[in-house]
Amino acid sequence: MATAMDLDTTQPPLLLPGESLPEDLSTTTLNPLRLGPGLFLSHDPTNSSILPQKAGRLQSPAPKSYYIESSQKRYVPAVGESVIAQVTGKHVEGYKLDIGSAHAAQLDALAFEGATKKNRPMLNIGSLVYARVTLANKDMEPELECVDPTTGKSAGFGELKEGYVMTASLSLCRRLLMPSPPVLLALAGQVAFEIAVGVNGRIWVKSADVATTIAVVEAVRRSEFLRESEVGRMVKEVLTGVGERAQHE
């Protein structure tokens, strides 16, 4: 009897909650896997296995890293994920931020590269930051930091100044964070821009002019439902006339 995983070998496997994963996805102390949203490790005494919690396609953004891509609307924080957060409140020890989850997140004022009590970033209500989730628990507020835990450096985290923020599906954001996303490679070959992608459904884009920024945002948005072979042509169409429009700003 064919299963959902046998129906289309050209796409990532489609799984249902509780369905068995491919046999090669086993995890041991010598061969650990990193599990993202939609997957959990069953601790059955007789059979420890990885099972999906929701319906969707099994994705692998990096070696030994897996998650279920589904139509989930609300972001559920997970430790280690990168998010774009907006400051909604300030207190003595830091900031309260909106990350699009069920609960507001907390960011310590010292959770920045080189920050001290006398020298720390001063964020305002409405400021945007690119941050990493350090605590994710359904019974506690998520906690964030703006440094790479292995180096103590900012590594791209911190306040996002100017630019434009677009909202996108959680699945598109996760695909953009995979190695060599086609739309970003195609855009980078044509125009200069900065981008920060949060797995919480927010994407920040900045370039030297408004016309280029709008074009990048439009290309990223349109790429979601295109085949990889169609992305290059779409990017060329979107960028047509961008240089001329930029000169008239």
Automatic annotation (TrEMBL):
The keyword rRNA processing applies. It holds the Pfam family Rrp40_N. GO terms for molecular function: RNA binding. Residues 12-23 have a biased composition (Low complexity). One of its GO terms (cellular component) is nuclear exosome (RNase complex). It is found in: Cytoplasm; Nucleus, Nucleolus. Residues 1-23 are annotated as: Disordered. It comes from the Eukaryota. SUPFAM superfamilies: Eukaryotic type KH-domain (KH-domain type I) (SSF54791), Nucleic acid-binding proteins (SSF50249). Residues 33-74 form the Exosome complex exonuclease Rrp40 N-terminal domain. GO terms for biological process: CUT catabolic process; exonucleolytic trimming to generate mature 3'-end of 5.8S rRNA from tricistronic rRNA transcript (SSU-rRNA, 5.8S rRNA, LSU-rRNA); nuclear polyadenylation-dependent rRNA catabolic process; poly(A)-dependent snoRNA 3'-end processing; regulation of gene expression; TRAMP-dependent tRNA surveillance pathway; U4 snRNA 3'-end processing. Gene3D superfamilies: 2.40.50.100, K Homology domain, type 1 (3.30.1370.10), Nucleic acid-binding proteins (2.40.50.140). Residues 163-210 form the K Homology domain. Keywords: Cytoplasm, Exosome, Nucleus, RNA-binding, rRNA processing. PANTHER family: EXOSOME COMPLEX COMPONENT RRP40 (PTHR21321:SF1), PNAS-3 RELATED (PTHR21321). Belongs to the RRP40 family. This is Ribosomal RNA-processing protein 40. It comes from Saitoella complicata (strain BCRC 22490 / CBS 7301 / JCM 7358 / NBRC 10748 / NRRL Y-17804).
